[in-house]
Amino acid sequence: AEDVVTGEDGSIEVLSAPSDFEAVKNALEAAGLKPEIAEVTMRAENTIALAGEDAQRMQKLLDVIEDLDDVQDVYHNAELEG
Fold it and tell me: For 52, left (φ over 0), alpha (ψ -120 to 50), or beta?
């Protein structure tokens, strides 16, 4: 694993390179830790904080994009506040 991030809710996120995913997942399971979610996904290295009206507009855009039938996943680097 490259990094371990603890969430405010007590969750733990283990980050690894995509090529190491299976090995890290298997090691966690062998240690008795069953992940609630285990997946390879896109993750932004840099984020942009948006608040107020900008955050609302971004959320509306994300909602419209996610509602499209042809869209399976939506990735972004915005941290939406309020």
Answer: left
Per-residue pLDDT of 50-80, as tens digits, reads 999 999 999 999 999 999 999 999 999 999 9
Which residues neighbour 31 within 8 Å (Cβ) at sequence distance 6 or greater? none
CA distance 20 to 51: 36
Task: Give the residues across from 5 on adjacent strands.
Answer: 13
Residue 11, both tokens = 């969750």
**pLDDT (average), residues 20-42:** 93
Which residue, chain included where needed, has tokens 């371990």?
4
What's the alpha-carbon Rg for the chain, to the nearest Å? 16
Give the start-to-end residue ranges of the domains of the chain.
1-41, 44-82
